[in-house]
Fold this protein.
Amino acid sequence: MNYDSKHGSDDFCQKNWKILLGLLLLFSFAVSFYGVCLNYFYDIDEPKYARAVYEMFSQGNFLAPMFDGMPRMEKPPLTYWVMYPFAWLASLNGFSGNTLFFLRMPTVICSMLIVVGTAFTGRRLFGAATGLLAAVMIQSSVLFKFMSVMMKVDVVFACCVTWATYCYLLRYLGDKRKVVSIGGAVITALGVLAKGPFAFLPLAGYVLAVGIRHNVRAKHEAGQPASFLSSINLGGIITAKWNDRKILLIWFLAGCIPFGLWLYAAWMSSGFDYSQGLVGQFFHNTSTSSSKLVDKLGRLDPYFDTLTVIFFPWGGYVFGAVFGIWKSIKEKYDERYVFMVCVFLVYLLTFTLLFKLKSNRYMLPVLPILSILVCDWLVNAKRDKSYRTLFEMGFIWLCSMGAMLSYRSFKAMNVSVNLADGVPVEQYMDTMIPFFLAFGCFFLILLVVSIKQTERPALHIIGGALAIVAIMPFYYRTLPSYVSISENKPLPIMGQALTDGLKEITKGNTLILHRPFFIKTFPDVVYFLKKLDNGSGCMYSLGSSVPPAEMLQAIATPEKAADLFKKEHPDAEKYPAYKYFKETKFDSAVMLLSSYDYIQFYKFFEALPPMIKDMLVVEEMNMLSVKWVNEQVWIVRFIPKQ
C-alpha cells in the first residue's frame, strides 16, 4: 500500500497513548455495558453456560461442567472458569434477582480486552492512530456489540486469539524476548482451554507467514521475482518451520498439556470421559452431506455477508482494504500484510471447509484483524483517485445495507435480538418509531462526516462510531421485556414465565418431569428452576423417554424419581441429578410437555379411566421461547380428589 508521510494525528496519539488508551477503555466499557442488565437470555446457548456455572458453583466441582445434572461435554471449561468468580458474587445474594448481570460481566471484560488487543496490534503494525481508531471501529461494529454481552465461549475465545495473534506478530517481526514467548505460550494454553485445537489456527497462520517470508527472501537472493501465490512453497515453509521449531514446540505443548491435564482431572473427579463428548461434538458440527472441495468453497457466502453486513457500519470499506493489500503485495512485499492475511485466511478457510453450520459468530476472532486492515486503508492509504472512488463506494454500500436492513425489519415488523432471531414488534410500534428515527439520524450524521471527507478519515470513523452507539438506547427499548406473567411485552418469556407459573401452583419440593428433548429446546427453563428450589440448593429436572404410563405414574408418586432415573442410566451414582432425586422428599410433581410431546400424550390422556382422568389437570401456557418464536407448553399435574 502506498502511504503518505507520517501524519500529525499519529504523533499526537503516540505522545498521548496512555491517556487515549484510558479513554478508549471507558468508551469500550460504556458501549459493552449496554444490554447486560436484561433479565432474559439472548439466544439458546446462553442458558447452557449460565446453568453450567451455577451447577459448578453449587456442587463445588470446578473441573466437570454439568447441565441439569448431566455432563456438558460440548465445550472446554475456560468460559465457565472465568464466569465462576461472578457466580460467587451472585451467590452473596442467594442467586436471587437478576444474576444474569453478574454472569455477563466476564464477556464484557473479555470484549474490552479484545479492543485493547486490537489497539496494541494496530499500533505495532501501522502506528498509534491506526491502532486506536481500529479499536473504536471494532467496538462500534454490530457483531462485536451483540456478542460482547452474551454468555458464550465465542468472546472468551476471541480474546485469546487476539492476544495470541499479538504475541505471534511480535515474534514474527523479530521480538524474541522471553516475555513474548511466555505470553504466547500462556495465551495459547488459555485458547485451547476455551475452544480446543481451534486455538492453534493463529499459530498455523504464523507458520504460513514465516514460510512465505522465507520463500520470498530465497527468491530475491536468487534474483527472481516473488509474488504471494508463488511464495506458498511447501518445501520453504517446512524449512522455515524447522528453523523456528523450538518456539513452535513450546507453544504447541503449552496448548496441549493443560488441556490434557484438565481432561484427566475431569475424568477423575466425575467419572465421565469428556474427550468423547468433545470429539463427538466436533464430528457433529463438521459432518456435511458433501465432501467436494468446490461445494465447500461455495458456502463462503455467509462469511462474505458477515464481512460486509455484520461488520456494519464498516463492511463497505472491506473492498478498499482488499484493493490496498493487493496493490501493496503486488508492488512491494510487505511482511506485515502477509502475516495478517495468512492468519485471516487460515481461520476463514478452516471454518468454511470444516463446519456445516455457518454462523456469524465464527467471524468474531478475526474481526480485530479486519478492523485493523480496514482502518489502515482508510487512515494511511495515499489519497489518489482510486482511494476516493473506493471510499465513496464503501459509503454507498454502507448506506445501502443500512437502508436494506431497516426496510426488512420494518416490513417484517420484527427486530433482531441476536442477529439470528427476530421478535414481532407490531404490537408496540411506539418504541420502534423512535428507533427508526434515531437510525435515520445516524445516516444523516454519517453523511455529514463523510461527504468530501476523504482527507479526514479519522473524523469519519469517530463520527460514525459515536452515531451508531447513540442509537443503542433506542434499540434496547424495542426489545422484549419481562416483569411478571401479566406484565411483559410482547408475550411472557418462557424461562421466567413458566417457572413463575409453576411457583404459583406448586408447593414445597417439586419434581419437574419432561421428555429429554424438551430441555434441549428450552434450556432457559432449567436455569430458572432456581426460583423453585426453596433455598434448598441446586434443583434438577428429570428428563425421561419412558412410556407415557410410567411418566404419569411418576407424577402421582414422585418419590420413585430416582428409580426412574436409574432405569435409563445404569451408572446413575455418577450423576449429581440422581443424588438429588434420591435424597429429596418431593411434595408435588408436574410434567412439562412441548407441542410435539403433547400430541403424543393426548391420546393416552383420553384413554385414561374417568376416575384418573378427573384428577388430571392440564394447563396451557403461550410464551416466547429462547429462539424467540411463539410456543405452547402444557403443564400436567395430579390433584387427588378429597
